[in-house]
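Dear Dr. H.,

I hope your travels went smoothly. While you were away I took the liberty of generating a structure for the chain from your last submission, since the lab meeting agenda had it listed for discussion. I wanted you to have the full record in hand beforehand rather than looking at slides cold. The sequence, exactly as received, is reproduced here:
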Amino acid sequence: MSKEEIDARVQELLKLDKEELARRLATLETMVKRLGPEVNYFLRNLMMPVRAIRRDFRPIFGILMGVRFDIAEFEILVDATERDYMSGTKTRELKTVRIKPSSLVSWEIIHEREEIPPEKPKSEQ
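The corresponding predicted structure, in token form, is as follows:
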């Protein structure tokens, strides 16, 4: 990201009120903390001078412009109803599920969810 891009973004953000800026910052800081120490290390050091040594021992000097990561696992907070088939009881569990991307066949981001009451049968209408 160039200085010009950053300056343009600063001008956009200056148009927001203080509460909105504080909310955005708090959200961003909370999300960044959850990314893990490796990601945080590189985030803190983006746009910094770096020296890397290749396997053939030739140095690379430059500015760290970006980093790409492979996802090792997802950590998902789940609110689920579980059924114990031995006792016939149902329990509600709030749990964290950790799963590797290779165990998934599909991925969805749910932006909004609303429970819809069941429709009454036509005979009751």
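Two observations you may find useful: The radius of gyration is 24 Å. The chain is about 30% helix and 25% strand.

With kind regards,
E. W.
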